[in-house]
TetR family transcriptional regulator
Amino acid sequence: MTPAPRRTHQAAPPREDVLAAVMATVAERGLDGLTMAGLGRAVGMSSGHLLYYFRTKDELLLQTLEWSENRLGAERRALLARPEGVRERLEGYIALYLPAGHRDPHWTLWLEVWSRSQNADDEARARQAAIEGAWHRDLVALLAEGVSRGAFRPVDADRFATRLRALLDGLSVHVTVGIPGTGRERALAQAAEFLDETLEPGPRPGDATGVTTAS
């Protein structure tokens, strides 16, 4: 009697391979093209196995976002450590913050996670806040450095960082969804104008010159 073939256990792919496959799918087909069945085929797993490891699609998306943010965080830290002027590093921070263009996969994922966060639990919200907090702290430190060196006008670094990130978030949404008349280059130019008007030392555009005349 021929013995039955032994069943072999197929090891799950590394977590990072799954998350990279999510990003690749979002980049190629958008979020509408991301299904658990399709992702399973891409990484050699069943959709049931994916749900076993990630529990829900919301958790899969959040973990993918965290993975992508970790990579961006490494880029951001390297950028901020460069021996350049503080304004140049700030412009580099902004360039890294803004999406590459319409349907940027990282920002597409961010927007989806944001939209789902209305029903997220406290743990998921805390993890999202940690992502936001890392960007914010680095920006505050950069602004404080610029103020201390006299490269920027005196501002409250924390408050200014909140305003600047709100501007960048709005510009990023427009670029990502492809609103006509928007784009990465236009967003970069608008951010640079904002810095010139609010942060550069000296009188602001439109300020009175303070010229006096003899009586």
The chain has a mean pLDDT of 89. The CA atoms of residues 60 and 72 lie 18 Å apart.
